[in-house]
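HUMAN: Mind making up another protein with tokenized structure?

ASSISTANT:
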Amino acid sequence: QVQLVQSGGDSVQAGGSLRLSCTSSSLFYCMSWFRQVPGEEREGVATIDRDGWTIYARSVRGRFTISRDNAKSTLYLDLNSLKAEDTAMYYCAASWDNVCHGNSWSEARRYIYWGRGTQVTVSS
């Protein structure tokens, strides 16, 4: 059974940093981070393929870094220079298919496997 187990959410002050982790039971081709606030659609944050190719949402580019350790089947998201508007539930998502490339990476419907989410709260 495929599982994505998340950790690392917390409450921090603006300007602070956090690291989110997502450990999977399989080595997926594409892994991504999404975030969601109540009443809004799930938003793509960043994606990475098995070879390390990355794409970032414009809102986080230069502040967040996505990475993965294939030997540990673990995905990371380093969040730096956090802002109040980064407050959200963060989810990791995974796909066997090549959804990492092109604009489709940020479409939540492209992913079958999801973590349960971890809350990031940034106070100003």
The first strand starts at residue 4 and ends at 7. The two ends are 41 Å apart (CA to CA). The chain has a mean pLDDT of 96. Residues 60 and 75 are 17 Å apart (CA to CA).
